[in-house]
Amino acid sequence: MSEENATQDVTKPKSLLGIRHVQCMMLFLALVFAYAMRVNISMAIVAMTDKSKEDSFNWSIQKQSVILSSFFWGYVVLQIPGGELAARFGGMVLITSCIAINSAVSLLIPIGSYYGGWQLVCACRVIQGLSQGFLFPSVHNLIGKWVPLEEKSCLGTVIYAGGQLGTALQLMASGFIAEYWGWPAIFYVNGTLGAIWTALYVFLGADSPHTSKMISVEERLYIQTSLGHVGEQKKLRTPWKKIWTSLPFISLIVVHCGQNWGFWTLMTEMPSYMSQVLGVEIKANGMMSALPYLAMYLFSFPLGFMSDYILKKKWLSITACRKLSNSIGHFGPAIALVVLSYVPAGNVAVAVAVLTFVVGLNAGHYTGYLLVHIDMAPNFAGTMMGITNCIANIVSIITPLAAGAILQDETDPNEWRKVFYVASAIYVACNIFFIVFGTSEKQEWNDPVDDSKEPSDEPVAGKKTEKII
Question: For residue 349, what are the contacts with CB-CB under 8 A and spacing of at least 6?
Fold first, then answer.
């Protein structure tokens, strides 16, 4: 079939699996390995500083805290430049560099810790954070080019859920690896798996269907027609002023900050809460630590399929569907946090069940505001994600400091209620702002008008509009 004839038939390809699914699977694995390398130090440092071992390091709690936080020093820096680079050069080069650099550094950390001490470990983590600054902007860019509108909720969920699965698997596996092979093996396993992924993606990956050498004409046209990308794509100048003055985009910044405040309150403060109030140290049990992440991973699939089904049946507009998903992901945990604050001291089973439910429901944000970046402006989704992720991760650094300022007595449940109330209120307030001002309608600045051309008064054929709900 010639490409000219194929343009007449833009129906979904007959084959169940295509090259777009290969790309999505590689992006899913990229997030699995990236998040595994992001959190591996939290488990490894316990074994590295175990005084019962001969080769342990005598690092103080303060030095360990610096090591644990050093990743985010670098992570925040390249978020916005990463989005711009993804828009200019495509996401493939950036995500390949991200995983390759993280893998190489993981392989060097054991040697570096012996010869350079905690300072060199910090330097390695900063480098990993810097390179992972490319992760979400490049993934967003690639999803915007590869995933058809009809499959965006489902495939987008599969991809983003890789981060939570990687975290859960790393938490579960690290203890066993350290016990049987020693703590350096944690980094060697991560580095080796990342290197294998990099080699595979160099051969299988592509910036877009247009540049892929493996995709069929039928599948290429299906994707490009769904996204309105038929023909060669031009390099567009980023409309910075219009992005920063767009109220729907500002609503994405607000809701992303709300997400990070609530999520990191749970992830950083739960161990202390369960230890001081409920009398159990959650980090002593890798399986218990991984449970909320596994719940988030598992909850993401029914929520993703639900979102796609609603859009397929046309029960709701894209905007309304995204807001519904995000409301499940934010209002649900907000209510559950209040319930958690009233769990009786010592009732560990109920507390863990509520905590797992809280984090599980939060999976709604995968098919909520995260996809709105791509809905609003697929041409600049990477740049937009870089901006919102940069600002939101500054909030991630502030969150535990704020909790520490609120808590005067860590053993007092009333003090913890204040922390949970604040997180709950922020979840609710930020999501309401998103509901009021957010939209999935494609913005006019997604397709900048060439200044050299006269503006036409004729309507653009096929352009659809959607009310903000």
Answer: none
